[in-house]
């Protein structure tokens, strides 16, 4: 089973070591191209607009300039924000942490794919950015990520946002998790609460040694772990199924 996560805009302020470690060595060449392009961009006046930064985020440009020699920290400690606070990678048991490192893949506009134990410096680059000269990063990364992940086997639990699903789709072996809020008998798609719920779901899936093989197995497992879930009918056309996680007010 693979669990796909988006990164977070919120990140730790600084790294703690000069050691850099990256899984998926097949991505070394595109990583180098994106890193070089990002550093070059951040020496130009266009950087803030291209990266979508506010006046108060201008320090992110200086941080990106220093990336080649910047100190690193584990991905498990890098990302902050609602999803990662609820996932709580740093608070997992040793066994769950090992499972998380095998199961979780974080999609990144700069690094492509990351494991929780990888070590990288804090950075600022969304997959939705059109980075000169390669253009849209989702389209740039798609062939390289596909070459890595298309050959993997097993269920893929997709907890990513739309910006990152554009970089790779798992096909019919995927299960896209959607969070619905139920109030007064009506269900609506939510955003902020969705991040928290996805973090909780991911934590459930790394704390258990169980390995669901089908979408039905996944729904049964999450229900047994206390989540209220409903599995949609197969979409067909090599598309992922949808699993709704329903939360109350």
UniProtKB/TrEMBL annotation:
Highest taxon listed in the record's lineage: Bacteria
- Which biological process annotations from GO are given for this protein? response to hydroperoxide
One Pfam family hit: H2O2_YaaD
Listed GO cellular component terms? cytosol
Looking up InterPro entries in the UniProt record yields: YaaA
The identity of this protein, by name, is Peroxide stress protein YaaA
| Species assigned in the record | Microbispora cellulosiformans
